[in-house]
Amino acid sequence: MNLQTLEHAAHRPSTQKKKSILVWLDDRLQFILLIPSLLLMTLVFLYPVLYNVYLSVHDWTFLTLHDPPFVGLRHIMHVLGDAGFYHSMYLSALFVAGGVGLQFVLGFALALAVNRIRRGHGSITTLFVFPMMVTPVVVGLMWKFIFDYNFGIFNYFLTVLGLEKIALLTSNAFALPATILVDTWQWTPFMFIVLLAGLKSLPSEPFEAAEMDGASKWQTLLHVTLPLMKSVIIVALVMRIAGAVKVFDQIFVLTGGGPGTATETISMILHKKAFVEFDFGYAAALAIVLTVVVGILCWFAIRALYSEK
Asked: Which spans are transmembrane here (predicted)?
């Protein structure tokens, strides 16, 4: 055996080791490339959550900024025993039920209508989606001018019809329905676009079979379309419920939570506790309780979705 052969045999284990390392890196390259993004997401999402928990267990106000005393679960218990919290949750439930319910009905009706159109549905879809693209603050300001008692176009048409003006945004009876109407105007397009995509993805065979069996359009809708759309409907409802619970911009611009507490939803009372009363510990505890409530609702919805599958 010559010297060149001995050198080649000596270098062979190191070469194989390098190849095995390269194969290992190649198999896990996609996960390695995700590490920076995962670290960034951990910093962006996990840190605020942990800091919020830290705030909730301390009596953090302007008077105790430098050395807040530890209070444990006192803020959580205070939230659970606060009548104002349950009132705001009740208003939030009305807002979510009324707004999301209307958005689903209108969005599904529009999706069914547009799905039947053969030509020009692209421009119609773009027109319907436009309200969703507007900033919520701008939407609130626009509708505040529309509902204005003295100069708003809404009351102008009422006077044209011979009816009395209505102070929608300063009335205990009409303030919450007015905010629901504004939210419905902006977010019905979301329901529409999601449900339209779901309708476009449905197979044609069940509808052809229903037509051959002589099913009416109403029967086809109830017994074919809705069952096939169940998963899409659940996803759309979960996303909108999670968004509607934390709506703040529109209500803040339209009514500021008033008149009185007529529109003081959970997001409004959270803002009030944190940035008006500067009780950051209580506001953090309130945010935790709200997150748990929304998480439970979403868990039930997702469980229903996967149980169906």
From this structure: 29-50, 89-112, 124-143, 220-239, 251-270, 282-306
